[in-house]
Amino acid sequence: MVGFLGAVVAAAIVLISTSSIVLVESSITTFSKAFKPLYGESNIVSYEDEGSVEIAMDEATSSGFHSKEMYVQGYFETSLRLPESYTAGVVVTFYASNNQKYPYRHDEIDLEFLGRARGGTWSLQTNFYGGGHVERGREERYDLWFDPSEDSHRYAIRWGPDRITYYVDGVPIRHVAKAPAMRAEFPNKEMRLYGTIWNGSDWATGGGRYKMDMSYGPFVAKYSGFVMNGCPFNGTGPRDCVDRGLTLTREERLKMNGFRRRWMTYSYCYDIKRYPLSLPECVFNSRELRHLQKLHPKTFGYSKNSN
After folding, report:
1. Catalytic residue among 25, 41, 59, 108
2. What residue segments make up the domains of the chain, in order of their start?
3. Could you tell me how far CA 148 lies from the centroid of its own chain?
4. Is position 48 annotated as part of the catalytic site?
5. How far apart, in whole angstroms, are the C-alpha atoms of residue 194 and residue 66?
6. Element (H, E) at 288
7. Please, how many CA atoms are within 13 Å of residue 118, restricted to the half-sphere of its CB?
8. Is residue 78 within 8 Å of residue 46, measured between CB atoms?
9. Which listed residue (41, 48, 84, 112) is catalytic?
10. CB 68, CB 199: distance < 8 Å
11. Other C-beta atoms within 10 Å of 53: how many?
């Protein structure tokens, strides 16, 4: 557990592009300094001198929090421990959005954790969209190489003007480069960071087959170690901004490809029934496709020639 307890600890994150090395000073900050309750305040409990927070869902209410600041671009991270036992239908999130400010044309970048049925595992889903284009789902789902309910693990979003990267314990698991044809479908407006827990029984586990069972509740998610290394938006525009739209290093890309070939369970880019023509940012990877075809041949068009 991070031992900052009410203090701000300076750290350096090294971001490497193809042409230069950029040192960006970041900080681990406290929950009370960076966030405030969004709803279900009775189920939000801060601890460790308000550096960490537990949010719960019980029979009365779910709960969530959001950042005090809005940001344009940045690196955002939290350490998160998910609820234990049977958690089908439970959704825990760490994401960026501006749906309250732009309700009909909002942007979003999601890390969503989908609860498990008996004998199953938690699933991590990533998604993003811009300009309110929710009809263009860009979801990917993954298993994890650990049980996320046994201990805290680090999850992060890096958002730049033309790149989005998702991380698990420092390993990039998804990297999206903006394609010109995406236009407003790529997130480009200021957003807040959110953490929530809620009932997604209609879709979250087995496509809605397994429902939430409150006899296993209350369900509690624990967040700590917040890194809010973003470009704050001051009402009229960003301030103190650093371009974080950097490419991955060769080592990072190798780690990401290894993760995706082993742990990815769904990607919209290969779902030919949903998108007969791939969306413009999709990059075809034959090894990813073969992996997905073996898992879900009906969805990803498995054939004898796919090996």
Report:
1. 108
2. 9-268
3. 14
4. no
5. 4
6. helix 286-295
7. 2
8. no
9. 112
10. no
11. 24
> Which residue type is seen at 307?
N
CA torsion sign for 127, 199, 142, 147 is positive
Residue 108 annotated to the active site:
yes
Is 9-268 a CATH 2.60.120.200 domain? yes
Closest CA to 91 of 211, 232, 178: 211
Burial of residue 86 (number of CB atoms within 10 Å: 0-12, 13-18, 19+)? buried
Exposure string over 119-156, b if 16+ CB within 10 A, otherwise e: ebbbbbbbbbbbbbbeeeebebbbebeeebbeebbbbb
CA–CA dist 73, 77 (Å, integer): 13
Contacts for 203 with CB less than 8 Å, ≥ 6 apart = none
Which residues, 6 or more positions from 36, have their beta carbon under 8 angstroms from its beta carbon? 65, 66, 68
Beta bridge partners of 50: none
Give this prediction's pTM: 0.89
How do the pLDDT tens digits run along the chain, 307 residues long? 333 333 333 333 333 333 222 333 457 899 999 999 999 999 999 999 999 999 999 999 999 999 999 999 999 999 999 999 999 999 999 999 999 999 999 999 999 999 999 999 999 999 999 999 999 999 999 999 999 999 999 999 999 999 999 999 999 999 999 999 999 999 999 999 999 999 999 999 999 999 999 999 999 999 999 999 999 998 777 776 765 557 899 999 999 999 999 999 999 999 999 999 999 999 999 999 999 999 999 899 854 444 4
Size of the chain, expressed as the number of residues it contains: 307
- Pairing of β 153-159 and β 70-81: antiparallel
Which tokens belong to 131? 């300009």
